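Title: Prediction job returns without error message
Component: structure pipeline
Severity: low
Priority: P3
Assignee: unassigned

Description:
Job completed but the reporter wants confirmation the result is attached to the right record. Sequence as submitted:
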Amino acid sequence: MMTDLAPPQIRAITGLELAAGVFTKCSDNLASQLNISLTSGRRDPGPAQFRVGINGDLYGGMLAPIEVGTRRVDIAYVNPSAMVAMAYRGKGYYREKMHLRVLGCFPSWDRIALVVSKDLSVKSLRDIVRRKTPLRVSTRFSGVNNATYFTIATILSLYGFSFGQIKKWGGQVQECGRPFAPERMKAIAKHKLDAVFDEGVSTVGGWLDLALANGYEIVPIEPDIVKQLERMGYTGTVLPKRRFRPLKEDALTIDFSGWALVTHKWLADKVAYAAIETIDEKKKIIPVDDDRQLDMRELCNGSEKCPLRVPLHPGAAKYYREKGYLKGVGVVE
């Protein structure tokens, strides 16, 4: 098909389509850290550069807001959206405020769950500290700027202990790459663990459902600890009894929802507008961590699954308004 595009644009578009097609067909055999860079050569130093970073230690964990805030990349995903709020405020992991904006937040309902064997009669994590319980606990990988591990470790520190202290008390720490790691699921089923501290609780029949059906119970996070976490950027919420039937009542915890598509305040309005226009055009084929197709209204207005924690980029907001997706004026900077 004939086109009015210049040869460099033709080749760039072909390369992007090629990469997307190959990954779609061969994702099981390929690495998943994505780094797309549109840069200028020696002959054309004028055009603006543009970089997208997705997944991996650098673009998928705690470092992603720093990469965006320091403009080493222009757009990245960050999960949970609480990490965006933390970086925006310069709290917790982040030593200084990052000039972040969101293009939208993709759906992913999740919570932190602290689960302990009923045999231990633990009603608060303070019981573990007081007894110096040598837990056999399963959690996520450490040392990879993992948002889950950081969050769990922060909660433990607010209670006055750590995974290191659990080991000193004679306990064992199993680190897993994902919530449904086979070694964890097998250990839960055979009741070879005393506790599991993790997220990834939305899947029916997942690790939390398995634990609740095999002699474990959820230990709520106390209100005073939740308040301290909220000051960092997290949001207090509950693990609802309506979803987890074995619960006697809702259990207080913190939210771990949302895949925020993050940029910085310097991104050109035209580029931000084009990014959301593209998502709208492709929404029927973009996979999401939800049981429904991507909803553009939810993307920009937020919901329980899509918490918007920092202001929308004005270029993105412009598109949302023109299409009638954005309610009211929204929070835009």
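Comment from assignee: result matches the submitted record. Residues 113-254 form a domain with the D-Maltodextrin-Binding Protein; domain 2 fold (CATH 3.40.190.10).
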